[in-house]
Amino acid sequence: MKLLFVHDRLGAQAGAESNLRHTAAELQRRGHMVALAHGPGTGQGEADWRLLFAERYDLSAGDPVGTIGTALEMFRPDLVYLHNPPGLAVVEALAEVALPVVRMVHDHQLFCLRGCKYPAWSRRPCARALSPFCVFPCGGFVRRAASGDRSLEWASYAAKKRELELHREFYRLVVASEYMRAELRRNGFAPEQIEIHAPVPPPAVAAAPLPVFGPRNLIVYAGQIARGKGVDVLLESLAMVRWPFECVILGDGHHRAHCEELSRRLGLADRVRFLGYVPQAELAHYYREATLALVSSVWPEPFGAAGLEAMRCGLPVVAFDVGGISEWLLDGVNGLLVPWMNRTGFALGVEMLLADKALARRLGARGRVLAGERFDFDRYVSGLEALFARATAPDSEVLA
After folding, report:
1. Which fold has domain 204-374?
2. Contact 287, 208 (CB under 8 A)
3. Nearest to 327 by CA among 294, 371, 284, 297
4. Which of 70, 300, 361, 383 has the fewest CB atoms within 10 Å of its CB?
């Protein structure tokens, strides 16, 4: 099968990019041909992407619709696998092609003007469908620019409604959790158009050695440093921890400078290190040396694959109970779930696992088993293969 991936980035950045690259690599290993139509590069891990996708079509070169047409004409795919779309014009073009289009909905961008499902002033998760409320009082028509700097950009409610309607033309929408399925249903999608295929770590991560749970008391956060990821809340929680610890923050993002300054103000500079982007192959080293992992997201996390990666490596996870996290993190079984924004509870959870290494080891071991039983990489890719086979079958109904 020939599969055209479409995404708004080229290179490593966050969970969406990790999922896309590992999925494409495994599908290619299984004999499928893959190509990529992409937006601008991230500056991280681009060489791996260029090696994986021998055929690439740059949508940032000036005429994205024309470039999509060229990709369809030159590569002649059997199916388009759309990840984060590089603009409304590309979605409109794909809705008109006589090919099945499957969309992987990684986050809330499809049905939220701000893209994060919380208002700027509170970060309290929003439970509304796309509506005029998103314009006022939410103020979602002004959001952080896609460039990631401090600039702002306008978001059009009419354009977002148009994008949502165009997605009804696609063959299927893939999500990672029941929580995200419910969000799509809230926005009017039929249950039969939505499938759950939870992204899981590749075998290299799953086969990592068990953590040592040593006296170093290492705590790991791996992910973007964005406001919704709650690294500032994580730091405020760690400032309450009375037990000795060392914490590494692995990742980058627009909130990093603020969080580094906050860490200094809280007196954590000697215990918390910001190490920036770390290639996924190196994450296992930090997990092996650690006692626990943190998922501090305060936005409604669509799934939280970073926590699942830590769990597969045998680490217990402490996280806020928000979005789809409770679908893989079971309180007292493979980690600790803390009520949303409860800094005291978060700190107590960290202290409990640092003080009781036997408990941390038991929770980590249970998590590794649970991850192997419920979240298997081969089964995940096989599920996508089955979906693509149904979409391209001669009797399949292509909605476009």
Report:
1. Rossmann fold (3.40.50)
2. yes
3. 371
4. 70
Residue type, 76: R
CB 24 within 8 A of CB 79: no
For residue 137, whether the previous peptide bond is cis, meaning omega lies within 30 degrees of 0, is yes
pLDDT at residue 400 greater than cutoff 50: no
Q: What is the pTM of this model?
A: 0.92
CATH number attached to the domain at 2-200+377-392: 3.40.50.2000
Per-domain residue ranges of the chain: 2-200+377-392, 204-374
Give the contacts of 294 (CB within 8 A, at least 6 positions apart).
219, 220, 221, 234, 247, 317, 318, 319, 350
Whether the Cβ atoms of residue 367 and residue 311 lie closer than 8 Å to each other: yes
- Per-residue pLDDT of 245-302, as tens digits, reads 999 999 999 999 999 999 999 999 999 999 999 987 788 899 999 999 999 999 999 9
Which 3-state string (H, E, C) describes 324-382? CHHHCCCECCCEEEECCCCHHHHHHHHHHHHHCHHHHHHHHHHHHHHHHHHCCHHHHHH
